[in-house]
Amino acid sequence: MINFEFYNPTKVIFGKGVEAEAGKEIKALGGHKVLVHYGGTFLQENGTLDRVHKGLEDAGLDYIDLGGVVPNPRLGLVKEGIQLCKDEGVDFLLPIGGGSAIDSAKGIGYGLVNDFSLEDLLLGKVTTDKIAPIGCISTIAATGSETSNSMVITIEDGMLKRSYNHDCARPKFAIMNPELTYTLPVYQTASGGSDIMMHTMERYFTNTKDVDLIDRMAEGLLVSVREAVKVAVKEPQNYEARATLMWAGSLSHNGLTGTGRVSDFASHKIEHELGGMFDVAHGAGLCAIWGSWARYVLKTNPTRFAQFAVNVFNVPENFYNMEVTALKGIEAWEDWCRKIGMPTNLKELGVEPTDAQIEEMARKCVATGGGHVGFFQTLYKDDVIKIYEMARK
């Protein structure tokens, strides 16, 4: 286990009906005027937006709405939100939704209190530890952005999907009512559950030794999510399955399962280019990529893959050949993906990139890491091209 720092100050308010408490929490934190940020129309249709508005009014807070958030949130809306907040005197941000709404609000928060272009922040040209205060109401179990330090935004010029991570971006509070996820489409539920799995797996696949404690935590989380997704796609109003997924989404990406080890995140970097170029659902894109990444890097540490196979997917261990066990674990993951309606390759994802598009995605991918990505196995441009090509078949 290596040295680490773990910082997670987000107050979690979890359970039925808790979205009504947002106003009280913001008031206690000194907020006066709130930007309510969201996407789609379901919040109006199911009455959630009205309940949140009433909670803000009861707390004596002013507010203004900004809708329009889309999956793979766009920098253009972030900039619109920054200007709106400046014009209206907003001092607290309240996104309602999943990672897209929360990340968009984080972008607004950075832009509101810093004097630089958001492009420069996302492209790594500047850094900051300042952000406007944010609380959030989560309605999707997926990204874990409600308690994480990360933000992912798509820059429309070039359709670059880029991230910035800093602990200042952890929301002051995260309100999570599993009932608000009941009406999610099956595909979105499965995609979100896959994202939770992948956030844990990106940290689990490490070459750091003596990390048994967090391994066991991660394996327990993965097994619980594996089963909860299968229930939630068949029984959308199963509260316990939804609650498991919602809490697991935060635990998978708040940094806990990455403590004491070097994490990988190459699959995320590779998928981000798919999301930028083809605008695919993030969790589904990860499912389409991971099996190819896994087969490509397996020989780096087959024992780690075999451990995953045995402890997460109950694959019988072949004591004479760890690689056989490891491959069966990858196959078990892909079988799970198919059972919940997720793709296991690019064709199933509905994407058939040309050679030129693969070259472009690979080039952009490794550029985010100074010419390479990943820590389980360092991947250069040609490696990423081969993974895309494997996933295309």
From TrEMBL:
Transmembrane segments: none annotated. One of its GO terms (molecular function) is methylglyoxal reductase (NADPH) (acetol producing) activity. Residues 189-391 form the Fe-containing alcohol dehydrogenase-like C-terminal domain. It comes from Muricomes intestini. Pfam families: ADH_Fe_C, Fe-ADH. Keywords: Oxidoreductase. This is Uncharacterized protein. The keyword Oxidoreductase applies. Gene3D superfamilies: 3.40.50.1970, Dehydroquinate synthase-like - alpha domain.
